[in-house]
Amino acid sequence: HQITIRVKRGEEFLDIPVEPRWAFPSSQGPTGITIGAQYPFTERVAVPPLQAIPMGFRATSDVMILARNQVIGWVKGGSGPEVAGPVGIAQATGEAAKAGVPPLFELAALLSINLGIVNMLPLPALDGGRLFFLLLEVLRRGKRVAPQKEALVHFVGFALFIVLTIVVTFADVSRLIGGTS
Question: What's the average model confidence in pLDDT over 144-152?
Fold first, then answer.
């Protein structure tokens, strides 16, 4: 649905209506806007705890909705997933730390939420994979998959995650050497 984005041009603030898209060119975002901090500034607003707590839940909900929308966008033909490994996360953490403590906490919260979501996916070697086997046992009316077979599935999944981590780390290092952020 349409959203309103507040931008600062010179000394004037403008409210601009924007309609997000599911499929967009790789050089643009869902709104056609690339956000960059040419002259960064942060507006700080202090609110009492009784207002801050619901705002925190709302921000968490918004992040989860964005994650869901990103996955839907991949399925509908938008740009593919942009992933970062430990090196990319360390770089993003360094950039967030330069911007101050609040952006660093926001990044930590974002990483925590994303890690929780990914961990619950029904993939071998993750908690969601274990839950999948438990659900399978329920559907089979208590008949359990042989522990050796389940262990093998989790081992193969873990090995694939290690390979994926190596590939993504290589891509992160290559990107850094190439000079892109």
Answer: 93
Per-residue pLDDT tens over the stretch 49-65: 999 999 989 988 888 88
**Residue with the two structure tokens 């990103």:** 70
Residue 142 tokens, joined: 């208590």
